[in-house]
Specification:
Shape: globular
Largest sheet: 5 strands, antiparallel
Structural class: alpha+beta
Number of helices: 2
Distance between the termini: 22 Å
Number of strands: 5
Length: 95
């Protein structure tokens, strides 16, 4: 089984990551973007987590991430946090 490893600086729990009523998945808000050491774009979320958003066609088509204006337009938008979803799914396994 593959274990996800994440830096401790981005794994803090936050009340900003709540279950969305329509899908039942945790949702955060986009608070910003930065580039990693390899120049890939990373989205910063209100829950404290982060996620890479790469534009690598044909596997990942996100041309908007390369445009500063389009990135800025997405600040404040809802974003399904995969890290929070994993924690929520793990929390329900013991029931």
């Amino acid at each position: 089984m593959h274990k996800n490893v994440e830096l401790t600086s981005v794994t803090k729990a936050s009340p900003d990551c709540e279950r969305a009523s329509d899908e039942g998945r945790p949702t955060s808000r986009i608070t910003g973007f930065h580039q990693d050491e390899d120049g890939h774009w990373v989205v910063e979320l209100s829950c404290g987590h982060s996620q890479h958003l790469r534009h690598q066609p044909p596997w990942q088509a996100r041309p908007w991430v390369l445009d500063p204006a389009q990135r800025a337009q997405r600040i404040g938008q809802a974003f399904a946090c995969g890290w929070c979803a994993q924690e929520a799914d793990s929390a329900t396994l013991g029931r």
